[in-house]
Amino acid sequence: MNILKSAAIAFSLTIAMGTFSTAAVAESDPGRVSHNPADVIVEINKRIDAAENAINNGAEGDEVVALIRKARDFTKELNANDKVSRETAKVRAHLKKAEASAKTADLQDAKAHLADAKKALVTLQTFM
């Protein structure tokens, strides 16, 4: 009788948990826009280009930091799988180094890190 009770409880738990699929009822937070991964990569690339253009046009360090931060923050929108997450972390690391260089007014070093971030984005596109 004990085995029958345990089996009935296990079966009812399985049925209860199986009726609500997480993937089926998943939705983004209210007011939050979900992006296609390929679109996110293109947008990050545009934001990196904007930061590079600001450096080329003689912008101050604070302006460049703000542009790099926008690109780095947008990398959080890229959700696909574990490989993509690892590659995204590499892009984010380069952007963080570029931001740190821009804070110290070393804009040429920041530009080099932005170029490395763009190379990492190209690698990231191969996973899509």
UniProtKB/TrEMBL annotation:
Keywords, alphabetical: Signal
UniProt superkingdom: Bacteria
Keyword Signal found: yes
Signal peptide (from-to): 1-26
Protein name: DUF4398 domain-containing protein
